[in-house]
Amino acid sequence: MFVLIQKNEELMPDEYLGEIYYVSGDVAYKGKMKIVPADSELIDYLNPDSYQGWDGDTLYVAGIKQLKVQK
């Protein structure tokens, strides 16, 4: 998996833009993601070591944080 997470000023503080790709280059997900638990501190989204796994609707981040797909 390859992960690209971004922030911009148009998003709420707990929202991120995510792009997740399979090794083949096919898109697994592209869109808004929201940090869980809601009271979590912001993530170090530029650090690739922060990301621990993807299960199809949740990107697991170091510690107990998660980025959940927003539908």
List keywords for this structure.
single chain, 71 residues, 6-stranded antiparallel β-sheet, globular
In short:
By secondary structure, this protein is an all-beta fold. 0% of the residues lie in helices and 48% in strands.
Characterise this structure.
The protein has 71 residues and is mainly beta. The protein has strands at 2-6, 15-21, 27-36, 51-54, 58-61, 66-69. The protein has a 6-stranded antiparallel sheet, with no helix packed on it. The radius of gyration is 11 Å and the shape is globular. The model has no long low-confidence stretch (mean pLDDT 92).
In which order are the strands of the major sheet placed? 1-2-3-6-5-4
Radius of gyration: 11 Å
Tell me the fraction of residues in β-strands, as a range: over 45%
Summed up, the helix count is 0
